[in-house]
Amino acid sequence: YLVTSVSGCLVCHSDVDWQAPGFPPKAGTEGSGRTWSEEGLPFLTSPNITPDPETGVGTWTDDMLARAIREA
Q: For residues 58 and 43, what is the distance between their CA atoms, to the nearest angstrom?
């Protein structure tokens, strides 16, 4: 609920459909991370926040996630 509704995490951590009303995440990319090169910010990268243990945060503890959210 926090990720999809309150905080809007998926807007930064997903490819966005700029043609759709409200600019929702593209289907299948929710939370998978993205680079911001097309927006003129090639130095900015939003990491993968999916529960995938190899490419996402699937092996992180709750404390690790909380720290990343607070301090990143």
A: 25
**How many CB atoms are located within 10 Å of the residue 12 CB?**
18
Give the whole-angstrom CA distance, residue 58 versus residue 60: 6
The residue type at 67: R
* Tokens encoding 63: 């404390």
The pTM (predicted TM-score) of the whole model is: 0.79
Q: What is the residue whose two structure tokens read 């289907």?
A: 27
User: What is the predicted pLDDT for the residue at 27?
Assistant: 92
For the chain, the straight-line distance linking the first and the last C-alpha, in angstroms and rounded, comes to: 20
